[in-house]
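Please describe what follows:
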Amino acid sequence: MGAATATTAARVLFVIIAVYLIRKVVAIKFDTFWFIKIGALAGISAMLFYVLSFLNHYFSSTIALFLYVVAVIKYLLTKEDRNYFISIIKHIIHGGSIIE
């Protein structure tokens, strides 16, 4: 468990440093608040998984993943993003090219 925690911490630190350097070098502006919300949502989903651990792990992970997807679609995607994903799903169902 210690090695996994250390690896996760190192990867998170690497991503934070990389994003910081990318912002400085390339002068790209990130929507930081959106990334904070998605990180908090991922943490809440992980806590939900552990709270539901008295259930079967497959069942609790399915519940946590479903609630995560619903929250992302409802609260974090813009209307334009939702419409784009809906058009992709429609093209997959009905066939045809995704790129128009």
About this structure: The chain is about 80% helix and 0% strand. The chain has a mean pLDDT of 85. The first helix runs from residue 2 to 26.
